[in-house]
Amino acid sequence: xxxxxxxxxxxxxxxxxxxxxxxxxxxxxxxxxxxxxxxxxxxxxxxxxxxxxxxxxxxxxxxxxxxxxxxxxxxxxxxxxxxxxxxxxxxxxxxxxxxxxxxxxxxxxxxxxxxxxxxxxxxxxxxxxxxxxxxxxxxxxxxxxxxxxxxxxxxxxxxxxxxxxxxxxxxxxxxxxxxxxxxxxxxxxxxxxxxxxxxxxxxxxxxxxxxxxxxxxxxxxxxxxxxxxxxxxxxxxxxxxxxxxxxxxxxxxxxxxxxxxxxxxxxxxxxxxxxxxxxxxxxxxxxxxx
Length: 290
Hints:
By secondary structure, the protein is α/β, with parallel strands linked by helices. It is 35% helix and 25% strand.
């Protein structure tokens, strides 16, 4: 493994059922649910591209063909709207498709996030890589969350998890870390617990769906026994990695929306609508001034 190699691959575990959004997710992958006019997974792919990645590895499951179709050219649709006022609607997704390569594999059984990441090993190979959970939608004022993490990786060359402070009563919904703060907002991980009850949680610092992982994580996952819920937890594998070497937790600059919940999905929609409206108003104002 060459730890100094730039991070060019991003893994998207996208095999989950999205049961909290039934019946909408009965035939539509939860990663394809739109915030405004763009599906969740496209936001994640664009974040990865802005962090310098050009290879997207997607772990899918049954009923997820819409993801593959989305990141492909639709000749019939393109031909239908070519030369019309609607052509510009496809500009963004066309740009994404031309900037990177997409590869896919399937997670046959739902055995947890650790197992989903392990399923992506054949697409990743022996190099450091990023992981994005598409239902954690992030927006940052400057650099994207993954780009911030890539900068940190260049300095420390180890696995990194993104964290944020949460209300203590919500710890049983997240993986939670404990560690020593070695720089402002950067913690050396000493402990990680999957969905602890508030009274036993080691902190209120919760792991969100952004990771940078070194490839030795695959061997560690293989050795990891099923944990909470009978699933292979990435938190258990990362804790084992932290004990052998070093894992960092990073309080990122930006906002994160839990679009796996209806509440978070609505908040994200409102947030991006207001942001888009403000951008349009500003553009009109500038155009008028000229």
